[in-house]
Specification:
By secondary structure, this protein is mainly alpha-helical. It has one domain. The protein is 87% helix and 0% strand. Helix 1 runs antiparallel to helix 2, helix 1 packs parallel to helix 3 and helix 2 packs antiparallel against helix 3.
Length: 127
Amino acid sequence: MKKEEDADQIDKEPEEGLIDLQKKCGKVALFLWFSIGSCIFIANSEILNFFTWQGLAYFAIGLFIAPLLIGGIFYFIQRSFTKEYISIFPKASKVLVVGVDFFLIIAEAMIVYYIARWTIFSVLFQV
């Protein structure tokens, strides 16, 4: 009886961990989209304005799309890496996961910056 409960607990832990990972990836993308967009708007305040329909579209629509698309992509990348390499290197799994997390957050920040910049200057404002 005890072993069955332990086995059920082990089966539930990866699912809970993946749900936490999914939320974390979405929150990071949301925070990056908002903060990078705000910095671009503030840095170019002479040509960009928060209080236009373009600014509203950037923040209102982007804050829903960025976590879904960008956060979802990085979630699947991290999940596939974690599943693959933890089974190969179980002793170094913690170090690998933290290292990959750090690398993916940096990569996500760069990608969000370029997508946000392209969205603002090419799609919305066409400066």
